[in-house]
Amino acid sequence: MGQRNGRPSALLALLTMNADPHLEPIGYQWLCRQFKVNPMPYHVESYVGKTSRKSREERGRLIEVYAQGQHRAETIFDHLEFGLKREGLHLSLLREVLPRLPLQEVTAYVSSKPSGIYARRIAYLFEFFSGQRLPFEDMRMGNYVDLMDRELYFTRPGTRQSRWRIMDNLLHTLDFSPVLRRTPAIKAERDQELHARCARAIQEVPPEVFHRAMRFLYAKETRTSYAIERETPTQKRAELFMAQLERSAREDFLNEKALVALQKAIVDPRFAADGWRQAQNYVGQTLAPGMEDIHLVPPKPEDIDFLMRHWLACSAQLAETEFVPPIAAAAAVAWLFVFMHPFLDGNGRIHRFLIHHVLARRKFGPPGVLLPVSAVILNRPAQYDASLEAFSVPLKQRTDYDLDAQGGMKVLNETLDHFRYVDCTEMAEALYRFIEETIETELPAELRYLHRYDAARKAMRDVVDLPETTANLFIKLCLQNEGRLSNSKRKLPAFSMITSEEMERLEEALRTAYDLKPVDE
User: Fold this and answer.
1) Most CB atoms closer than 10 Å: which of 194, 212, 486, 521?
2) Phi, psi for 87 (deg, rounded to 5)
3) pLDDT per residue over 353-389, tens digit each?
4) Residue 139 in 3-state DSSP?
5) Residue 379: CB partners within 8 Å, gap ≥ 6?
6) 125 and 168 in contact (C-beta within 8 Å)?
7) Whole-angstrom Cα distance, residue 265 to residue 273?
8) Which one of 73-77, 123-127, 213-217, 448-452 scores highest in mean pLDDT?
9) Quick one: pLDDT band at residue 6, thresholds 50, 70, 90?
10) What percent of the chain has pLDDT over 90?
11) % of residues, the chain, pLDDT over 70
12) Is the whole-model pTM more than 0.85?
């Protein structure tokens, strides 16, 4: 049969969450247990117990403990109201639970609170998720209420749904919408500050070398984006990727035709796609022949068209409108893409390409400037992996799959709903950290390297005017040896015409330019 991932029972998984026998779940946690469902983890878990009010962070989630008597929830609708009021909008759970409620019980509940905020939200979601219409006339009076709390989430301005006088302000639709929570790390003011710091760093670049400096940054981003996947592109493929990066600020890549053309340009022609994938793929690491460590199980191929259609429409909004800060928007677009893995090859590079594309569309950073964020990602593998695993690990725990003897995967359960409402908050916070380090450390270092290179070449020409390839080889080898060419490297044919005295003066010129101290061999 091959390798198999066994899905833990939903009930067992839920019971282990509440290991303290003195705590009883309330709200969404109670509903999970009551209906024996196991949606993707939510950012908050609530309990009541014989204790005072407490809050703590655990496994990346907020654990809220309320004193007994502080909140009394006896019915399903009490728990639904508590969840909506205290915990936010858990769409993955509500999509599973609401259609299971009898129409008569929902009708009775809404009748008891015909104008209640939470009753109207529950009625609106029940009708959408169940496909059933409650026996009520459309509301004619009353204020519109937001579906999502604007204080907790980033939202759209909203679309009025007149039947229940609901302002549907999801980032996209009830069929598919990423979630971005408001946290101290995600705010428009931080984007503005980082934009200004980036502009100041670029202002220090002399106008006469600006174009070459930007080409240098594009080359750096290309090389490190491939290096993240332990690949080294050929010179031709690197140039093709650089050309796509340069186009990212001028053209629209958030459509299927453009993304397919991009994939064709950056992968081996044998693995180029003509459209979204028609086979199951996965991300993993081979431990030994026939043994795979699976990291990510993307959607089934029959779900890709639906998901990518909604992703494209949502991404276009995030790239053009300002209701989500630029960095958070770039994170949502790019990480959702890599989670869905719509191609059989090239997804990781396109994922990082999309960061630059959205930032450029949102005018983050000076025009034409590309931040070498992949260099920071390459140097922060644990943080990057954590941003991916925030979604991929719980997804894997909820996925049944088989691997055959040839390494082909078959997903055995339905997983579409896990991709509808991905919480991109952790991914956005990670991208803020990567971009801040890029602006504060990586960008100045790269520009400083270029300045020192120019200074070294100028000083070296005063000693001997070497051919370009010889000079570059000399600099590369000296920097690898802390400013001195080893005796073995001095014997290379490229340096056969250089005298010993010239060699020493060239080394001194390079050490001065790069501020290096001589090292005894």
Assistant:
1) 194
2) -115, -15
3) 999 999 999 999 999 899 999 999 999 999 999 999 9
4) coil
5) none
6) no
7) 10
8) 123-127
9) very low
10) 78
11) 95
12) yes
Q: What is the mean pLDDT of residues 128-154?
A: 96
CB atoms within 10 A of CB 272: 17
Report whether pLDDT(11) > 50: no
The whole-angstrom distance between residue 424's C-alpha and the CA centroid of its chain comes to: 7
Q: Going by DSSP bridges, is the β-strand pair 44-49/61-67 parallel, antiparallel, or unpaired?
A: parallel
H or E, element range at 472: helix 468-480
Question: How far apart (Å, rounded) are the C-alpha atoms in residues 424 and 387?
Answer: 9
Q: How far is CA 255 from the centre of its chain?
A: 19
Dist CA 324 CA 260 (whole Å): 27
Non-local CB neighbours of 170 within 8 Å, separated by 6+ positions: 147, 148, 155, 156, 177
What are the extents of the domains in the chain? Answer: 7-91, 101-170, 192-437, 462-514
Nearest to 370 by CA among 385, 359, 380, 383: 359
Query: Under CATH, what is the fold of the domain 192-437?
Result: Fic-like fold (1.10.3290)
Map tokens 């003011």 to a residue: 189
Q: Give the pairing type, strands 283-288 and 291-296.
A: antiparallel
Q: Is 23 helix (H, G, I), strand (E, B) or coil?
A: strand
Per-residue pLDDT reduced to its tens digit, 427-474? 999 999 999 999 999 999 888 888 899 999 999 999 999 999 999 999
Please state the length of the chain.
521
- Measured from the Cβ of residue 6, the count of other Cβ atoms closer than 10 Å reads 6
Structure token digits, residue 381: 């593998």
**Phi, psi values for residue 54, rounded to 5°:** -140, 155
What is the rounded CA–CA span in Å between residue 355 and residue 353?
A: 5
In this prediction, residues 379-404 reach a mean pLDDT of: 95
Tell the burial category of 239 from Cβ atoms under 10 Å away from its Cβ (0-12, 13-18, 19+): middle
**C-alpha dist (Å) from residue 169 to 11, 142, 318:** 33, 18, 14
The answer, yes or no, to whether residue 12 has pLDDT greater than 80, is no
